[in-house]
Amino acid sequence: MALLEIKNLQVKYGVIPALKGISFSVEHGEVVAIIGANGAGKTTTLHAISSIVSKSGGNVFFQEQDITNNPAHEIVAMGISQVQEGRGVFSNLSVLENLQLGAYLRKDKAEIARDFTFIYELFPRLAERQKQLAGTLSGGEQQMLAIGRALMSRPKLLLLDEPSMGLSPLITENIFRTIKKLNKENKMTILLVEQNAQMALWASNRTYIMETGQIVYNGNSKAMKNDDFIRKSYLGQ
Ligand code: ATP
């Protein structure tokens, strides 16, 4: 079975269906992207996996365990860490303190120290700004910090919600390069949702396309990037 298996997942906001029964999977070691327009249901999908919103149907399996009804804190403890859209770092805490918070469930001091080194190597800018308040960082640096904080919990699956949001093309590319590196060199399994289809297809192994609460297309990201229909319909080319 896949690391993450989603079956017929449904979410409603009041009477309005936001997810109309979607099914997909993420295998160990993959980067999987979900792309689609604003309002397609991408964020809702991540929130449903993390139990931030309640599900009205379907199942979520993680490491072959049914976690559909587990509360959010248990899901984090099981190894799923979500980086929220808009980053959500603690503005009045320093870079260092934000990273420390990411490790709040851990007691393995030596390993935590090792992860600090790892994150500072991954994002040298954070190392330079350890004492700086997170609120004074640039948008790109805050995104790095949010990813770093999520990594401090040593997740088995990293959920990224629109890492490109509000960032310049250059910074976006930098972030996506790091996402690829994390996957290649550190074997991190990643599920990311993105409006920037171009970047998402470049950084991922497989991609699902969502429209109004449904998955309408999926495939190998490289193949999709070269597919005329996908290029015309979703990449504006
Ligand atoms: P975005 O890029 O804007 O985050 P998305 O693809 O992630 O878009 P969702 O945020 O998951 O889409 O929203 C899916 C649908 O559910 C949209 O129609 C949205 O308006 C609606 N929706 C999202 N959150 C709520 C909420 N808290 N209450 C009511 N409706 C909501």
TrEMBL record:
Keywords: Amino-acid transport, ATP-binding, Nucleotide-binding, Transport. This is Branched-chain amino acid transport ATP-binding protein LivF (TC 3.A.1.4.1). InterPro entries: AAA+_ATPase, ABC_branched_ATPase_LivF/BraG, ABC_transporter-like_ATP-bd, ABC_transporter-like_CS, BCAA_Transport_ATP-bd_LivF, P-loop_NTPase. PROSITE patterns: ABC_TRANSPORTER_1, ABC_TRANSPORTER_2. Belongs to the ABC transporter superfamily. SUPFAM superfamilies: P-loop containing nucleoside triphosphate hydrolases. It comes from Sporomusa ovata. The keyword Transport applies. It holds the Pfam family ABC_tran.
